[in-house]
Amino acid sequence: MAPRKIIIDTDPGQDDAVALLLALASPEDLDVLGITAVAGNVPLPLTQRNTRIVCELSGRTDVPVFAGCDAPLVRALVTAEHVHGKTGLDGPPLAAPTIPLQEQHAVDFIVETLRNGPEGTVTLCPLGPLTNIATAFQKAPDIIPKVAEIVLMGGAYFEVGNITPAAEFNIYVDPEAADIVISSGAPIVMLPLDVTHKALTSKARVDAFRAFGTPVGDMTAAWTDFFERFDKEKYGAAGAPLHDPCVIAYLLDPTLFTGRHINVAVEITSELTLGMTVADWWRVTDRPPNALFIGDVDDAGFFALLTDRVARL
Ligand code: BDR
Ligand code: CA
Which atom of ligand 1 is nearest to the CA of 127? Predict the structure, then answer.
């Protein structure tokens, strides 16, 4: 089968970086048409820079990187330096990237790519706030039916929130954008905190990255080590949740995951629960299903896949 064509929309972030490595290490399965950066974990100048750093580290300097929206649709940007550090990719020092940033705006790249391709051939993979994707849908609604699938990291039901008591970070930062995307009618797969909090690093799993003896292995270990401290302190978790790599792992092997096809709605008015993903997990409403909401992962299988693929770089 021909590799699946994808656009990754991202705000690196150590877990975004590991997701990018997993995708870039898997050319037989994934044809990464481009990577679009969005403001999220840190402001846009850093997320686009970090994206280029990761592409360069992976050796995949052939993949074009675009900068997109620098602020949510209607709100001020909320960032997460408390999780990812000042640069978004804190850990060992990183050299400035040499690969160029494309001149085209990320939103125009998304619109053009979907418009110019046949229907149902390009999958969007958002790993951050949904601002770029929602802006593309607002600007060019004709592209919505052309999307093959949107496989995104965001939201929570049983785990509720990580940035507020009610909301997950990616959805909270731009709830209006999330609402536009999730109610767009495009086929959606959501990887919420309910599943990503089950994809935890451990000492053995991080040691396995280090054991590659490669710059990519060392960096992956250092990034996950850095990222781990936050969830250990906050949740008393055993390790770091590799949120965003779950999106790419789902594309590579969906049999690792289970979920329910249900209705998901985004709270955009209440100050208290802004950005909450109201997931009808128990199917207690008549609202029609609009997303496959993932709840579980074979975490050993997930880490075996991740380790096996990233070792190639
Ligand atoms: C999400 O927020 C970001 O901090 C991570 O990169 C991930 O995409 C988890 O809530
Ligand atoms: Ca992210």
Answer: 8
User: What is the CATH number assigned to the segment(s) 4-310?
Assistant: 3.90.245.10
Residue pLDDT, tens place only, 106-132: 999 999 999 999 999 999 999 999 999
Residue of 169, 171, 228, 229 best suited for mutating to test ligand 1, as the one with most atoms within 8 Å of CB: 169
Q: What is the CA radius of gyration of the chain?
A: 18
Nearest to 101 by CA among 70, 63, 68, 65: 65
Distance from the CA of 169 to the center of ligand 1, in angstroms? Answer: 6
What does the pLDDT look like over 250-282, one tens digit per residue?
A: 999 999 999 999 999 999 999 999 999 999 999
* Closest C-alpha among 166, 164, 176, 189 to residue 264: 189
Place of tokens 């994809």: 199
Structure tokens of 161? 């929130």
